[in-house]
Specification:
The protein is mostly beta strands. The protein contains no helices and eleven strands.
């Protein structure tokens, strides 16, 4: 069973930065793609960034491209994913979930994420 645990959320002023972390572990976790998913108040979940199992490929939603950077560190049966968020805007407010898929390919398809963390709140004040 894969377990994911996010940290790093909080309250920040517009234009500020935050760094989210996600620790993934489990006997079956090896080389799976990971993603960060945002759920803004009253809206659907959206994949904002994804990274492949090797960490060599990544993709971003247009709303965060150029401001957010996803990365990961891999170890045997574990990985830690990061989301560096710069120049934050009020529209970035929401709960950020870390998720992992079954396969190694980075994906912007929400339905391909099998394992989910509990989420961490990011609030950006204008």
């Amino acid at each position: 069973q894969v377990q994911l645990a996010e940290s790093g959320g909080g309250l920040v002023q517009a234009g500020g930065s935050l760094r989210l972390s996600c620790a993934a572990s489990g006997p079956a976790f090896s080389g799976s793609a990971m993603g960060w998913i945002r759920q803004a108040p009253g809206k659907e979940r959206v994949v904002v960034a994804t990274i492949s199992g090797t960490g060599r490929m990544w993709r971003y939603d247009a709303s965060v491209s150029g401001r957010f950077t996803i990365s990961r560190d891999n170890a045997k049966n574990t990985a830690t994913a990061y989301l560096q968020m710069n120049n934050l805007k009020s529209d970035d407010t929401g709960v950020y979930y870390c998720a992992a898929s079954e396969g190694p390919l980075a994906t912007m398809n929400l339905n391909e994420y099998t394992y989910w963390g509990q989420g961490t709140q990011v609030s950006v004040s204008s």
